[in-house]
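BUG: 3D viewer hangs when loading the predicted structure for this chain

Environment: internal workstation, default settings.
Expected: structure renders.
Actual: progress bar stalls at 90%.

Input used:
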Amino acid sequence: MPLAQKLKALRQIRFALDQGELPLARACGLTQEEFEALANEQLIEVYFSKDEGPDLDRYHISKILPGGWSILSQAHVAEPDPVRVAVVPPHKSVCRRIYEGTRSGLWDLIKVGFGVALGWYLKKYFP
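Structure tokens produced before the viewer hung:
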């Protein structure tokens, strides 16, 4: 079994164990071959729970053994570095930045001017 496949299977098992219960091998998303390989290489500890059914439904995984943890700890060696992406805001022109910076202030000036004109009109024609 390739190292990358072991790593993927061990990550699935670690996630299932972190959920709190002892999962079945099928609940961890393992195939029959992956389950047999991990158990034979003593990377996981399993215990028998049922007499009938396929192996994936008869065995619970109780923990990851030190050999499995050593594979998980070497994960950065097995996989290439992920692509790093930086989010950069779009460039704005000088005119656009001036417009965005003054548009709320200009609207306030227009409202004040309209209020002054309305007040003058009401005071003149409706004393």
